[in-house]
Amino acid sequence: MSNPHAAHIEQSIISILNPDNEIIGYGFYIDPHGTAITCYHTIVHLTPIRIRDHDGNEFIATIDDYHTQYGAEFSDIAILQVPTATPTFLPLPITTYIGKEMTVINVNHSAFEFEDILLHKVTNPSHPPSSHGLPITSTGTIMAVGMLSVANYRNLPSLAIFQATPKSAQLQLLFQYLSDKYCSEEPDPKYRELKTFCNSQVRRAVRNLTEQKILLPNNFCNEPRIESVLNNFKEQSARVCCLLGESGIGKTNYLIRELPIFTGKLCTLFIAGQDLDPRLSSLPAKIKAYITQTLITHPHDTITIDDVMNLLYQHPEKCLIVIDGLNKIPRTSPKVFDDWFTRSIRWVRGMGLKLIITGTDTPTFQNGFLIDGFTGKQMKQAIIAYQLPEKFSKISRLNQPLLLRLHYDLGGQQLSAPLDDYPLLATWLSRKCTAIAARTQVSSSLIHSLLIDIAKHFVTSNDYWLSMEAYQHFLKDYPQLASILIHENLFIESVNGIRITQNWLADFLIGETFPADTDIDWEQLIPVSTATLRGGLPWLIAKKSFLGQDLSHTLNKLLIYILKSDHHYFNATVIFADIVRHLSYPDKYFTIIESFTVLLTNGYIFDIRMGPVIYNSHLSFPNQLKLFKICLSNEKLQPSEIMSYLSNNFHEKHIYLAQPSGRPTKLALGRYLFTDPGKTIAHITEWLYDCKDQEISMINIIACIIIYQQYSPHKIPFNPWIQDTPTQAMIIKVMISLILIAKESLVEQVYEELSQQRGTKKLVFEDIDAYSKSLPPILLNVYKRLPANEKKVDMTIWLLRIPEYRKEMINEILFLFKEGKVPDRLSKELGAYVTQDGIFELMVPMLVKYIKYGRDYPVRKECIPILFQFGKNEVQNRILANHLAALIQRGSDFDTHFTRSLVLGLYILAPSSAAYQTLLAMIPVLLNRNMHSWYHTLIYLCREEKNKQKRADKIKWIMWGFENLPERQLCNLVVLVLNMEIITDEAKILELIKPTILLTLKESDQFYDAVLKKCKKKNLSIYHDLANDEQMKALVKV
Fold first, then answer.
1. pTM, rounded to two decimals
2. Per the database entry, which stretches of residues form a coiled coil (predicted)?
């Protein structure tokens, strides 16, 4: 097919050559500076990468690792750099929609053929691997919208359309830059240049963060919640969005993963907080200074600082400003910084700009999202990405990305368990110092001492910044360290000076400035401490705990100080919380930590986010769950809230753990329910039954809600197999009433009953205890008025679990049995109750009768194992054994199921019991029934037995079997006796099995051969006896 741009497209294509000079794929140029795109799978194993252009010129291309390595495994896109100018190239229009008509290229005898297609009509594209990398263009243009590729490495042909292909943020930013620069749809040329300038600035900033190892693209996972927050921010009228979280939590990584959704439409300025000038008093002035410095280091032919500032003022709706690391901005004083922040937010909103901020906190509340580390699902993904042991994914505190990174740096795959926080930082820093020492000929101990001196400066300056002069002064005797400490990512260099990279590292070093035996006087130290010193004190305590010092007195003193201090209790509270987080062996001090949590929960001290503190601590799992319980115990829930949480209306489902009040604690508990649900539910079950003085507490109801929402409702742990205490019975009654009243199908009837009793339909009660205790009688009246339908059956299953109502529910079930209307799921619920006193006498005759004459075959079958539950009650066992024996003698389609119940009874019952003897007498009956019955019975008889009496009984019936059973059963019995070692006397075995073998030899030697093979594996002695037996030899010859 002719194409007006065929020559241009062909000149843009390059061929990928293998070592034999054969073409194994293609690529094409995407800018005039030698940048090309091809399929990653084509070039990944080539060394070197040789390419040939349209004119026959050959070049050695290099992989642009920065744009290729992050995500090539799922995009199959590689970016190459070819050392030549390429004025003929194909621009990338990222705004072109996929459904448009497109042109693909086929290779025919080294010539290119163009074919126009409609993508949505292509169901099975076909092209050879050697054509991979050829461009797909928008028909009638030179714009490349995709390339021929391989889908997911499955060797399936694919049309890789760039707009739909998953790409890393780095690659998306490159595509956006090239699109805006070479094929923008923007009519205003000046705006196009400004957009291109902004894209270049963002790309440089992201690349710089990657090279500094602040950004770790391969080790962070998608976070749907953050993606949703940023998408909503882009679409809505909000002007400010904050991503907040502690240092090292991954705020920058999350932001950059989603940044392309903004840079595609908005002129974006990405500014690292450390690069903002602290001396300027307004945000516009800081931005202007930053852009001025950018234009000095990266000059632009046509863009000036005035152009950028005019863009902000004249087209604010087209602009986004990102300040990454608000806490890293050098600040003169908290008051000055807070004032600057407030004025900056007002300016942004007044202008109509959009502003995204990342930081540890903000001086005033702003729209945004608090990042608490990896969720359970992300932890599993991150553990794989960091190549750490899979079991680490269940250790709560490793949700902190920085901890995973440090373990990875220390070769975590070889660790049997994660290190505590203090030894982790200490070991990591020691190895860093050793590595730097190897490069500089400066001893590692001296490097460590220099870092401690710098940390002392942090304490006195109350900041994590050093002026360039101060930094050089500390290293004046070792100037070679200045650049290496920055290169090793211990410090960040900025126009404002030098800043330590991680707050954690700074706090750790400040803690190291104290000797391990330092006696801390909280009353003297806290009032005069700086913020940086308070950050280091928990690490000093962590060191003491790791070294085995007893900290009971120190922690108790701090707790006392928190309670009696008027002015500094907030600072002391934060210190205590950080100590809890970093402390080694904290279970030794659990009672002190528990007291702190109680005080916090009851509002005696300043409220902090205790849930994440607990989750990130080194406390054992049971102790963490105890503290979670304390944190949730004081929550106040109204009846309407309880109903909404226990409702099964999926259209308006209210998830308790996702509610705003106490959200950090609930989210932390939710992570445990994701990573280890069984163990977590077991502990929450203990909350369910924790009741004092016969009063329902809020934690009982909260436990019920959590279990109901996170666990299958029909598996809710109201354990019917265990005799309930009076308190537990009362709790079960209330909780089941709460669950049932929330059911949509019963709400109307409950309101009607309430209206009759109280003259109102409103659920208004004095307190939650009055509400919970008023429900059971209301619910029982509602139940009695229901017709015998599916709704009533469902309610019966629930009410059966309430000890007080059990007999009444059993009578209801008996009525259903009589009517032949009992459903399958109801019969399954009876198993836990059949053997209970007062119920056994009612249920057993009815179940036996239903098994004999019931209408529903599946329900009859289901009733057999429910009925025949042999236990410790000898009277019940005898009654059940008699019924089972009668059913077996009667014979029916259920013989196989009766056999299973009989065998189970024989295993459980004592050989001296009457029930055992009754069941044992049924063995000859079953041995003459259908194959399933006699085979299961033979297996039981031949299975090894330790009880002497039962073993003797088994051997007796085996011998009876050899004398009385027909040939087919006998053959199976021979094999089982040889296999299962119930009889160990070889002579006895030979005596028993020989007649059967001789009997079969009269017709065929197949069974004889099979027995010989079996004996050869199991017992050589018997094998030789059988092989050399004269009678058998004679029959074999015949």
1. 0.76
2. none
Asked if 414 contacts 252 with a C-beta cutoff of 8 angstroms, the reply is no
Query: How many angstroms separate the most distant Cα atoms in the chain?
Result: 114
Q: Mean pLDDT score of the chain, rounded to an integer?
A: 86
Question: In terms of domains, do 140 and 188 share one?
Answer: no
Within a domain: 624 = no
Tell me if 997 is assigned to some domain: no
Checking if the pLDDT of 367 tops 60, the result is yes
CA distances in angstroms from 775 to 253, 519, 746, 772, listed in the order given: 51, 58, 13, 6
Question: Tens digits of per-residue pLDDT, 574-596?
Answer: 999 999 999 999 999 999 999 99
Q: Are both 215 and 271 inside the same structural domain?
A: yes
The terminus-to-terminus CA distance of the chain in angstroms comes to 85
Distances (CA, A) of 713 to 69, 704, 710, 806, 969: 47, 10, 9, 19, 47
Which tens digit of pLDDT belongs to each residue from 705-723? Answer: 998 888 766 566 676 656 6
Residues 217 and 340 in one domain: yes
Q: What is the pLDDT of residues 382-436, one digit of tens each?
A: 888 888 898 888 888 888 888 988 998 888 778 888 999 999 999 999 999 999 9
Whether residue 332 sits in one domain with residue 271: yes
Same domain, 58 and 185: no
Instruction: Kindly report the CATH number assigned to the domain that includes residue 139.
Output: 2.40.10.10
My answer on whether 367 and 309 are in the same domain is: yes
Q: The domain that contains 358 carries what CATH number?
A: 3.40.50
Q: Tell whether the model's pLDDT for residue 368 goes beyond 90.
A: no
Overall number of domains in the chain:
2
Give, for 403, the enclosing helix (H) or strand (E).
helix 401-409
Q: How many CB atoms lie within 10 A of CB 538?
A: 24
Which pair of tokens denotes residue 646? 């226990």
Which residue carries 């001396």 as its tokens?
A: 279
C-alpha torsion angle, residues 703, 709, 714, 716 (rounded to 10): -20
User: In Å, how far are 28, 50, 64, 600, 949 from 82, measured between CA atoms?
Assistant: 11, 10, 10, 63, 88
Report the C-alpha gap between 28 and 10 in whole angstroms: 9
Q: DSSP class of residue 399?
A: G
The encoded tokens of residue 50 equal 């040789």
In a domain, 217, yes or no: yes
Split at pLDDT 50, 70, 90, the class of 799 is confident
CA distances from 136 to 37, 116, 164 (A): 12, 10, 13
Residues forming beta bridges with residue 499, ordered by sequence position: 465, 492
* Cβ contact 903:940 at 8 Å: yes
Does 341 share its domain with 203?
Answer: yes
Query: How are the residues of the chain apportioned to helix, strand and coil, as percentages rounded to the nearest 5?
Result: 60, 10, 30
Q: Name the token pair of 401.
A: 């990305």
- Tell me the Cα Rg of the chain: 39
* Token pair belonging to 561: 């100080």
Residues 6 or more apart whose Cβ sits within 8 Å of residue 943: 980, 982
Boundary-marking domain end, from 353, 372, 391: 372
Domain range holding 51? 1-91+132-147
What is the β-pairing status of strands 319-324 and 267-272?
A: parallel
Least confident of 154-168, 530-544, 741-755: 154-168
Tens-digit pLDDT profile for residues 344-357: 999 999 999 999 99
Predicted local distance difference test score (pLDDT) of residue 346: 94
CA 454 – CA 13 distance, rounded (Å):
56
Q: Hey, what are 786's tokens?
A: 């229901």
Count, residues in the chain? 1038
Same domain assignment for residues 139 and 238: no
- Residue type at 164 in one-letter notation: A
What is the spatial distance between Cα 786 and Cα 789, in angstroms, rounded to a whole number?
A: 8
Cβ(266)–Cβ(283) below 8 Å: no
| pLDDT single digits (tens) 871-888 | 889 999 999 999 999 999
How far lies 561's CA from each of 542, 572, 665, in Å?
19, 8, 25
